[in-house]
């Protein structure tokens, strides 16, 4: 059986949600991160999630690869779009933007110690990271204005991934309801999906 390695509170939540949306026969394995004894190191030398191991033992890492791969296993579900279509490019555009810009913006917010050892400097790094994150979330809000979902008015793997980072906003002290009311309804729809509830319950158990 295909295995998907996830961690509570990690960006693997997007792939976890997508897999549950598709109802694929996948075994979900929750692992700790940033600990040398974590079993994730046995399958992914980088020690990161999501990591997917296929039935035949091939390993796939990175959300940019795993999300479209999962969607293509069940194309009739509509979580992706046909190769060569504009919608397919738009979904990939969202995944790329989220992976590089949005995910990257959280690093100085959550782990400023990676950039400097001095605690006072870390405070400044974190403040700058939060300001950058706010600017990026404003772009997300504009891109979603008047839309139910990110692409094609249906839930896709782009949404499965986007919801992760909107759920993270309280970590940066950003309240989506007061600061980004245009995104509040989107996140409410996201959190109401059975796939999201199931993934969250599994990871919290």
UniProtKB/TrEMBL annotation:
This is Glutathione binding-like protein. Transmembrane segments: none annotated. Residues 84-205 form the GST C-terminal domain. It comes from Uliginosibacterium silvisoli. Pfam families: GST_C, GST_N_2. InterPro entries: Glutathione-S-Trfase_C-like, Glutathione-S-Trfase_C_sf, Glutathione_S-Trfase, Glutathione_S-Trfase_N, GST_C, Thioredoxin-like_sf. Coiled coil: none annotated. It comes from the Bacteria. Residues 1-78 form the GST N-terminal domain.
